[in-house]
Amino acid sequence: MDKKALIVQGGWDGHEPLKVSELFKNILEECNFEVEISDTLDVFLDVEALKKLDLIVPVWTMGKITKEQVAPVIEAVANGVGIAGCHGGMCDAFRESVEWQFMTGGNWVSHPGGDNLEYVVNIKNTSSEIVEGLEDFKVKSEQYYLHVDPAVEVLATTRFPTVHWYHSSNRAVDMPVVWTKMWGLGRVFYNALGHHADVLEADMPREIMKRGFLWAAEGKEIAAKNNLDVSKFISNAKMF
Question: What is the 3-state secondary structure (H, E, C) of 71-90?
């Protein structure tokens, strides 16, 4: 049976959510996913429908999400549904939602130098299948500076500073570009590349997104095969 993916697109038009959504739809259909695209966050309100998915792909920058909309996503991913996205479409999606940021693993704070900045993406030495066999590559786009969850597994980085600004009075740092993490039984994948659709159409970013989608979508099936139960993660303690 084909896996099911939901792409939710909207927010700031500058990140070309329509083009990126179509690109992601094409990638997923190549991998035999049944794909639905929604342009409303209200699609998140039905938690039981979300739990039937294998993958959620947010393509939504600088929006606002209500607690009623975000809570079902938090629960569905915890139950094994994968979530995977890129650039501002996932980690600059809802700046006021700490719940979203906690689940996804990071949030954008700056892109020193703006667009059309040339920099190197360094693939990390890791056992992850997402970057297996891939080599360092150059990108000409925005270089994302993010505040990142220390729990993530970093698969690729980029060196800051590339341009001088207030941040460059600190030591040089290797900023995560691609990472994975767990959220309950669910797999989370993020790729900071993708300011415009053409960045993601290039061979390496496209391949990384494809592998990330597949990895994230496998989590639900693996949890079921191993009889994993989300109840062990549930707590009545205040989290937010």
Answer: HHHHHHHHCCCEEEEEHHHH
pTM greater than the 0.90 cutoff: yes
Q: Which domains does the chain have, with CATH numbers?
A: 3-108+177-233 (3.40.50.880)
DSSP state letter for 91: H
Per-residue tokens: 175: 């900023």
Rounded Cα–Cα distance for residues 153 and 151 (Å): 7
Alpha-carbon span 143 to 221, nearest angstrom: 34
Which residue in the block uniquely carries the two structure tokens 């079921």? 224
- Cβ–Cβ < 8 Å for 103, 140: no
Question: C-alpha 61: how far from its chain's center?
Answer: 12
Report the C-alpha gap between 42 and 69 in whole angstroms.
Answer: 6
Cα–Cα distance for residue pair 105/113, rounded to 1 Å: 24
CB atoms inside a 10 Å sphere around CB 122: 15
Q: Which two three-digit tokens encode residue 10?
A: 């909207």
Encode pLDDT of 184-211 as tens digits.
Answer: 999 999 999 999 999 999 999 999 999 9
Beta bridge partners of 55: 5, 82
DSSP 82: E
Question: Do residues 156 and 123 touch, judged by C-beta distance below 8 A?
Answer: yes
Cα gap 39→11, rounded to integer Å: 9
Q: Which residues pair with 35 in a beta bridge?
A: 5
First vs last Cα of the chain: how many Å apart?
Answer: 37
